[in-house]
Amino acid sequence: MVAYGPVRWVAPLLYGAVLVGGVYYAVAGLGDDPGPAAWRVSGFVAALGALFALEAAGRHRPAARVPLLLARCGLIGAVVFLDSSGLSQVLFVLLPFTAYFAFGRTTAIALGALCLAGPLIAYVLTAPGWYRDLERVSDLLMLSVGLVLAISMAAVAVGEQRARRELEAYAAQVAELSAAAERNRLARDIHDSLGHHLTAMSVQLEMASDFRDLDPDAARRALNEARHSVRLALGDVRQSVRALRDESAHPTLAAALAGLAHSGTASPRVTVEVSGDEDGYGTAELTALYRAAQEGVTNARRHARATRVTVTVRLAEDAARLEVTDDGRGFARDATVTGFGLLGMKERVQLVAGSVDIDSGPDSGTRLTVTVPRGKAEER
Known about the structure:
With 380 residues, this protein is an alpha+beta fold. The protein contains 10 helices and 5 strands. It has helices at 10-28, 38-60, 65-82, 94-103, 105-126, 134-210, 216-244, 253-262, 283-304, 340-351; strands spanning 269-276, 308-315, 319-326, 355-360, 366-373. A 5-stranded mixed sheet has the order 1-2-3-5-4, with helices on one face. α2 packs antiparallel against α3 (65-82) and α9 packs antiparallel against α10. It is rod-shaped and about 120 Å long. The two termini are 42 Å apart. The mean pLDDT is 81.
């Protein structure tokens, strides 16, 4: 069993009350018999002082559960024996109380039964007819009530600590899952934004290298377009930083898609058409549409050898539909299509309850269709 921390103020409070009551009883001579001997009072005070020290030691050595319990039992027994007032019997409730935190309910109940059986056996052996003595019967009843309350209080405290530990573990799990989700989101953003522009720069630089001697003007234009792609990449980085800082600076979907038509190389030629109203679509939904269009254009530019790419978006009242078509070389439908870009795009669309369909064939181009429902996801 996992050890729980006892309520620290209970034991010192009882020790202090017993110390004050026992010393006052001895000094005031409240008993019928002559006052107790000085050695008895000194031993009583010393035993209580040892209990205070034991509580302090238990805080620094919580693993020594058995030795601490045995020492506590011995010292409480000594205090009860040396106390003339009888008030110290209340300390018996601390034994099952502290045992509950270290060993659990069964041990606490068993120890509580032993604490009650001890005075009962002593009465049977030393006081015939004790059951007709109101004071002794009252002492046993009060001790029983105290033991029950102590065990109940310990059970409540352990339950509260267990619930707090479970809550902390759950919070740590949620934090880990949130961190994983954020890592995946950042990975998608890096691939979709920087990957798109780096692809364009790679194509442009290759063109500049190929035409450096044959057509210097074409090479110069390619370099200028590469510089333009660098500026766009820096703009995406700044936008990502603003998003991480929770600064609202989101362009409209139409404006963002228009940037696809003006970025990259002259080939393929990208045409964008957007119709409908963006109102009612959250940031996550519009971002999913834009990233899907960006992925489609990037793949057409990188792999398809297309000359024309058409991006069409229809924003209806119930759902948005995106189509990215190209006249490239396509691929076989039964071929395995893998890659971080397609995977990230599908994950992003699924997060907003959308769907992705890819239709392609050899030498017949590719059509990417993305459908996103309206109002199905909260803004992120």
